[in-house]
Amino acid sequence: MELKKIIIVLSITIAIAIAIMFGASYAWYAYKNAETNISGGTIKETPTIIFSQTEYISLKQTLPIKDNDRYNYANKNSFTITIDKNLEDYEKGIEISLININMADELKIANYKYELLQNNIKVANGDFSNIGSNKSLIIMPMTKLSPATYPTTYSYELLIWLSDDESNQNTLMNKGFSAKISINSAIKK
Q1: Chain segment 156-178, per-residue pLDDT in tens
Q2: Burial of residue 180, with CB atoms counted within 10 A of its CB: 0-12 exposed, 13-18 middle, 19 or more buried
Q3: Residues 6+ apart with CB under 8 A from 27
Q4: Is residue 49 a contact partner of residue 81, using CB atoms and an 8 Å limit?
Q5: 90-147 confidence digits (pLDDT tens)
Q6: What is the mean pLDDT of the chain?
Q7: 48-188 under CATH 2.60.120, yes or no
Q8: Which one, out of 26, 33, 95, 157, has a CA that is 20 to 30 A from the CA of 72?
Q9: CA 40/CA 179 separation, integer angstroms
Q10: Is residue 42 pLDDT above 60, yes or no?
Q11: pTM of the model
Q12: pLDDT in tens, 80-93
């Protein structure tokens, strides 16, 4: 009986050793075949972004403005994006959004509007009625820029205003709004 127990223990030990050996061999094989060599470099160049005032928007007062007067009286934030010659061989895209939005619930209406101009041409517009509890809003989704010459500077102006709808909007006046303009760029060879 003693010999039978020794044979069973040795058989189990050998089976475990063989399983460990196969597992280690397969792990080494999988590791060597999963090895990847990536050549290339990181693109360190980005478009140059310059804000005329600041990237922060802070409105303490909200006054109704006729839509056709928005270019004269709406809150404006101006900035430029320059694509230099060193980016000529790359595909370039930008996304413009508002982040860290803090606004009064009363302003989350269709009459509280924004408009984005690129070189004095409207490229995006909308309102804040669907923002809900979100703290960010994409103003212009990722858009490809294809300048004809280099360097090229794009001028942007973001307008934010309360649209006057001829009703009593006194309850909307003196409500606050603040956010930060965020510009993300993507560069691809």
Answers
A1: 999 999 999 888 888 888 888 99
A2: middle
A3: none
A4: yes
A5: 888 899 999 999 999 999 999 999 999 999 999 999 999 999 899 999 999 999 888 8
A6: 87
A7: yes
A8: 95
A9: 38
A10: no
A11: 0.73
A12: 999 988 888 888 88
- Token output for 3: 């010999």
Amino acid at 149: T
* Alpha helix segments (H runs only) across the chain: 2-33, 70-73
Q: What is the amino acid identity at position 74?
A: A
Can you point out the beta strands (E) in the chain? 48-51, 56-59, 64-65, 75-83, 91-103, 112-118, 121-127, 137-145, 152-163, 177-188
Cα separation, 47 vs 169, in Å, equals 41
> Alpha carbon 17 to chain centroid distance?
53
Question: For the chain, which residues make up each domain, given as ranges?
Answer: 1-36, 48-188
